[in-house]
Amino acid sequence: MFTAIPSQNAYSKTKSLHHESFWLDNPARPTAKPPVSHDIEADLVVIGAGFTGLWSALEAAIENPHWKIVVLEGDRIAGGATGRNGGFVSATLTHGFSNGLSRWPSEMSELLRLGSQNLAELGSRIGELRIDCDWLVSGEIDVAVEDYQVQNLKRVHAEMKELGVASQYLTAEQTRVHVNSPIYQGALFNPDVAIVDPARLAWGLARELERLGVEIFEHSKAGELKDSGNFVRINVGVHCVKGRLVVLATNAYPPLLKRIKHLVVPVYDYVLVSEPLSSEQRASIGWLSREGVGDSGNQFHYYRITEDGRILFGGYDALYQGKAGVKPEFDTDLDSFARLADHFVQTFPQLADVNFTHGWGGAIDTCSRFSAFWGKAHGGKTVYVAGFTGLGVGASRFAALTSLDLLQGRVTPRTNLQMVKTKPLPFPPEPFRRWVIAWTIKSLQKADRESGKRNLWLRLLDSLGLGFDS
Ligand SMILES: Cc1cc2nc3c(=O)[nH]c(=O)nc-3n(C[C@H](O)[C@H](O)[C@H](O)COP(=O)(O)OP(=O)(O)OC[C@H]3O[C@@H](n4cnc5c(N)ncnc54)[C@H](O)[C@@H]3O)c2cc1C
Predict the structure, then answer these.
(1) Interatomic CA distance for residues 130 and 203, integer angstroms
(2) What would the pLDDT profile of 263-321 be if each residue is shown by its tens digit?
(3) Is residue 308 part of a domain?
(4) Is 266 in the pocket of ligand 1 (CB under 6 A)?
């Protein structure tokens, strides 16, 4: 359905993009906090100031006001995926309903309950802390752009109904009342999704942390971690930070523990943001309720309206850069930007004249089961969590609460989940990893071209509970 080779027009339309996340390109971005400049001892050290780290520190500080808590950030607050995402805040903890149902059918009701509770509490926290971050419970429309996708959405709708999930199936005409695209053939509306300005949310959480006495150090990259009796010692340059407890929230970045290395791979996802639409352009697409929208191929797009009336349009390509991992040069991919510009016009031909201002990429922590996993190290003093696979804006708060449960040895409905007790299957080592991922992406692209028909390789992966997604 969507063209693979970008047009010359798309290249020229995207050649003068500002290559920075639209969310981070904001005069309200706080100035950098100083790096670690002395040795420190703390009750809790959180490594990584993305959503996972910030929520871990915040929920710990609220629960334990007497704790000394320190956050170490190698770059800037929200400089990773947290400041670069689409800003969809989904209730799902399992990278979507279908993935959760296929992996944990017997605990799906509980996963749904905990996911909805997490979304509601996340919204309440934003309200209590008065964080101005354009939080809007808009719902999400998953659209079908091919006939076979209509059938898939109807099947998912029936499965959701059986579990009491309040979703609504929309015909093509009903879908176009929400958002007017000629390619829509039907949709599933999921009310349990919000949209947010992710950078403003992260900065608001950081501000609250400082108010509660939590110290955040930016440009403070944690090096080696060592177990030393009652503490974990963390090297930060020439200084030593000792934590009685540690949360590792480093997402797709090089893991600080060997055991995580085979469980997560960094996969790059790209995003465009348009100039603000004129009132005529906006009228031509409707979209008054600013719902998040996602299409339904293996290679999918996600799109939404920003507070100032631009369209953020991202997804489709998912690029694995091999051993090179996470590097600033991968934040820009001119082919991916041009492909997105073409797909934008294929989706909204009435907006062919709209220009784009920002284009950027970011690394997603893909794991083979597409949803977060947890583990302990250093005799239980360190807990790590990773593997959100591109759907962690909401799930990161649940992940933070679960990490704090595990660190303090608490048995809760969260720690009782099979999802929390088990880990994904590992990716093979290089050079096989590169080959396996490339072959899987090719197979997924072929399936998208052939009405969703999965080849032998994808069916083998399905039967093993393995996959590749973003
Ligand atoms: C382009 C893109 C679009 C996305 N869209 C969505 C979306 O719409 N909805 C959704 O739910 N999810 C989305 N995601 C995923 C989502 O952004 C993440 O799952 C979520 O932000 C998780 O945050 P995190 O804190 O785990 O990771 P990050 O935000 O990546 O934070 C990890 C932090 O750890 C720091 N760090 C790493 N190593 C060290 C070290 N050694 N020492 C100190 N600090 C270190 C990094 O600098 C970084 O700041 C998207 C991701 C991308 C890249």
Answers:
(1) 12
(2) 999 999 999 999 999 999 999 999 999 999 999 999 999 999 999 999 999 999 999 99
(3) yes
(4) no
Quick check: CB of 251 below 6 Å from ligand 1?
A: yes
Residues spanned by the domain of 312: 8-21+137-194+264-366
Distance 372 CA to ligand 1 centre (A): 12
231-236 and 140-144 strand pairing: unpaired
Domain contains 307: yes
Residue 131: CB within 6 Å of ligand 1? no
Is 179 a domain residue? yes
Number of H helices, E strands in the chain: 13, 19
Distance 84 CA to ligand 1 centre (A): 8
Q: What number of CA atoms fall less than 13 Å from residue 438's CA on the CB side?
A: 8
Q: How far is CA 167 from the centre of its chain?
A: 22
Whole-number Å distance between alpha carbons of 105 and 101: 5
- Residue 250 Cβ < 6 Å to ligand 1: yes
Report the percent of the chain where pLDDT is more than 70. 100
Tally the domains of the chain: 1
pLDDT in tens, 198-224: 999 999 999 999 999 999 999 999 999
Assign residue 164 the CATH number of its domain. 3.30.9.10
Nearest CA to ligand 1 atom 2: 85
470 ligand 1 Cβ < 6 A: no
**Which pair of tokens denotes residue 337?**
């930007």
Distance 206 CA to ligand 1 centre (A): 15
- Is there a domain that residue 288 lies in? yes
Would you say the CB of residue 364 lies under 6 angstroms from ligand 1? yes
Tell if the pTM clears 0.90, that is, is over it: yes
Single-letter residue type at 96: G
